[in-house]
C-alpha cells in the first residue's frame, strides 16, 4: 500500500506525519511495506538539502528503506543542489509543460552516477548525444524513445534496456549486431525495443528478412532454434513495466553466435518489436 503526503512546506509535512502517526489507519497496520511516497510541491528556490533531511527523517520514523522512498516533484527542480551520488533510482514523469531536454537530463545523470535504474516517461524531441550519461545506467526505460533509440542501439553500455514508441530501422539493427559481435557492448544482457505504431508498415516495417544481410557478418553465425526455451529475465525494469507472457519465450527465436567466445544471443524480430537476449 502507498501512503501519500502532500507537502507544501517542512512544517506542513511534520503536521501531516503527526496526524498520520496518531491515526487509526497506522495503529491498525504494521508499517512494513517500504513503499511510502510523499508528493512535494516546494518552491523551486527551496534548498534541496532541507528536503534530504526530511527524507532521512521519514525513513527513520517509518523504518523504511531509503531506496524505496521516492520523492515526487511537480516541476523540474534544481537538481544541482542534491548531494552528488545521493540518487539511486529516478523516474522522470510526463509533464507536457516541462521544457527540459536531453542536455538537462545528461547533467542530472552525470551528477547522480550511482543510479541502478532510470525511467523516462516523457518524450524528447531534441537529439541525444552519443556520450550521454544515461547510456551508462544499468537499467533504462524510455517510454517515448522515437528517433533517439538509435543512440541506444549504438552506444548503450548498460545491462537492460526497454525502449517504447521507437523508430527502428534495418540499418541500425545490423549496426547494433556488429557492435555486439565486436564486443563493444559486453555489459549488455537484454535489449527490448517496441516499434512505434506509425512505423509498423512501409519502409520501417521489421521482419526476419532484415537479418538476411547479417549472414555476411564476420565473426558470427546465425542459427535457427527449434526447441522450447525461456529467457530468465532479472532486471529492476520488471518493477516498472508489465511484459506480455510470451516476451521471453525464445523457442522460435533466431540465435547469433560469436566465433571468438561462442557467446550466444537470441534475436526476436517482428513488425512490432526487436528483442535481443544474451544467454549467460
Automatic annotation (TrEMBL):
Organism name: Caenorhabditis briggsae
Protein name per Swiss-Prot or TrEMBL: F-box associated domain-containing protein
Phylogenetic lineage: Eukaryota, Metazoa, Ecdysozoa, Nematoda, Chromadorea
